[in-house]
Design a protein that fits this description.
- This protein is α/β, with parallel strands linked by helices.
- It has 19 helices and 20 strands.
- The strands form six sheets. A six-stranded parallel beta sheet has the order 4-3-5-6-7-8, sandwiched between helices. Strands 9-12-13-14-15-16 form a six-stranded parallel beta sheet. Strands 1-2 form a two-stranded antiparallel sheet.
- The longest helix is centred in the last third of the chain and has 19 residues.
- The chain is globular.
- The protein starts with a strand and ends with a strand.
């Protein structure tokens, strides 16, 4: 460990805070917040970010070469395994103390001490981490466990941080705590009392993001619009100060929106706002079992009226059979959300649902992220089928790569679920999931499926041509388009391309309730 600086009376100790993010484009809100909260002790701590996609020994190597005396990690279900594995190696090659905090170590933390961990921080860590660093630099003895201590919110980012934020997602918290009591979530035990950062501070901090023209700011507030007046005030501020670049993402309670909210949000520039709304299920017994009080009809109607809406469903909840889940899926897809996230129940440590798993016959993976295997209402085969459908949903709908094709197919199947299930069966029976696909392979597979589904081949080729051009400036089309379409190369350059279509696709996309009519049109694509 470090030595005592006899002149200052402060121990010369090297402390590293390490964030292991799920992806490179993510930033560690916990890391930046804890650094900002150190105050006069900030100079004693270095901050490093890695991702779970990096090789474990590459992380070990970099940390080893830095020769830290103390390492602190923020732990989540997506990184706990690699964190503990890195810790086990570092403990063998360095005389290092290990501090861990975060949601994954809030409950059932005692076993961590057998994995090389020296100190556990339970709950919010702003005060605890500062106290730990102060104790380290002053040569004081550390406790093994530091409990939750709520502080006022801290703005996490310094001016110098924004240089490294190009094309990355910035996370921001304007309120913490949660008034809900969802059985599958740790929030009711982790952060119960909602705390709202003063509005004038929120606006000044958002102005920093706008000035720096960051790409996306994700509010991590669990229910952003729980205070409707406050939410509308922030939306108005962002509308008035829109820089034309930054996107703001909010998690909302969809049934709390009223007509004034919808009217206000409809004035936004396309791309200014994204909204994530947790539906989870439309089955009343399921919602009651997980402690969600939702006016589902109002939620879905509001979602229909908004642009940029992400809706969430969870597979494996209590009392949700295959039949009721199919209804939930069709109910949600009927509003044609911008994206639909189909998640699978995770039995997080410390949650009410994990504690009551036996009551609902829930069996789940022992290792993080603790995915459900089956329960009393849905067996493993049914959940496995839904995993396949989730893959197809990601590929066709959520990717945005096949919007025109998918919308048309949804209109020509009896239900949204029937389309995705039928295509999933086709995809997996054909073993397409086991093959690497070249640039146009998936388009050809989609066209073949449309043939089997009884759709007009020329029409479907036109829709796929539109989808291709919506994503890329195509110069060489696949054979099934090139065989009938010869475009004028003079109408193409690096920044735009003009192509002829046999169908009025644009008018139909603007109002999909109308029929897709055969009418020669020219469409200009900008790149």
């Amino acid at each position: 460990m470090g030595v005592l600086n006899l002149i200052s009376g402060i121990r010369d100790v090297k402390i590293l805070f390490v964030a292991v993010n799920a992806r490179f484009l993510h930033t560690s809100l916990a890391g930046f917040t804890l650094m900002a909260g150190l105050g006069e002790y900030r100079r004693f701590v270095e901050f490093r970010e890695f991702t779970v996609n990096q090789l474990e020994m590459d992380i070990v190597s970099e940390l080893f070469e830095l020769k830290p005396d103390v390492l602190a990690f923020s732990c989540y279900i997506w990184n706990i395994d690699i964190v503990l594995s890195v810790v086990s190696v570092l403990k063998k090659i360095l005389p290092v103390k290990i501090i861990v905090g975060g949601p994954e170590v809030f409950a059932e933390y005692e076993g961590l001490f057998d994995c090389g961990v020296d100190v556990v921080v339970r709950g919010r860590g702003e005060i605890a981490f500062k106290n730990i660093v102060a104790a380290l630099v002053n040569g004081e003895t550390l406790s093994n466990v530091y409990e939750n201590a709520v502080s006022e919110s801290i703005f996490p980012y310094a001016d110098s941080d924004f240089e490294s934020f190009a094309n990355r997602i910035i996370y921001y918290e304007s309120q913490f705590g949660c008034a809900n009591n969802c059985a599958y979530c740790l929030a009711p035990r982790f952060d119960q009392r909602p705390y709202f950062t003063p509005l004038d501070r929120v606006k000044s901090e958002l102005k920093i993001f706008l000035t720096n023209k960051v790409k996306q700011v994700k509010f991590v507030d669990r229910t952003f619009n729980i205070d409707r007046t406050r939410a509308a005030d922030i939306w108005r501020f962002l509308l008035e100060n829109d820089n034309g670049v930054t996107n703001f993402h909010f998690e909302l309670a969809g049934d709390l929106l009223d007509g004034d909210d919808i009217a206000l949000l409809k004035t936004a520039r396309k791309g200014l706002f994204q909204f994530e709304i947790g539906v989870q299920s439309t089955n009343p017994p399921t919602l009651e079992a997980i402690g969600r009080r939702t006016d589902t009809a109002k939620l879905l109607e509001n979602a229909r009226l908004l642009d940029g809406v992400y809706l969430d469903l969870i597979v494996g909840l209590p009392h949700e059979s295959t039949e009721t889940f199919i209804k939930s899926f069709n109910d949600v897809m009927a509003v044609l959300p911008y994206r639909l996230h189909l998640g699978f129940l995770k039995l997080l440590k410390g949650t009410a649902l994990r504690e009551n798993a036996e009551k609902y016959g829930i069996k789940y993976r022992a290792a993080a992220p603790y995915d459900i295997l089956f329960n009393d209402s849905m067996d493993f085969a049914a959940i496995n089928d839904l995993r396949k459908i989730e893959h197809i949903l990601q590929m066709l709908y959520n990717s945005g790569n096949f919007d025109a094709y998918t919308l048309f197919m949804l209109q020509n199947f009896s239900t949204p679920y029937r389309f995705f299930k039928t295509f999933a069966d086709y995809w997996y029976t054909g073993n397409f999931h086991k093959k690497a696909h070249k640039k146009f392979d998936t388009f050809a597979i989609l066209l073949d499926f449309a043939d089997i589904a009884g759709q007009d081949r020329r029409l479907m080729s036109e829709l796929l041509k539109y989808d291709m051009l919506s994503r890329e400036n195509i110069r060489t089309f696949p054979p099934f388009i090139a065989d009938y379409y010869r475009y004028d190369r003079r109408k193409i350059d690096k920044k735009f391309a003009q192509h002829t279509f046999e169908y009025d696709i644009i008018s139909w996309l603007e109002n999909p309730t109308l029929p897709l009519t055969k009418k020669q049109t020219e469409i200009t694509f900008h790149f």
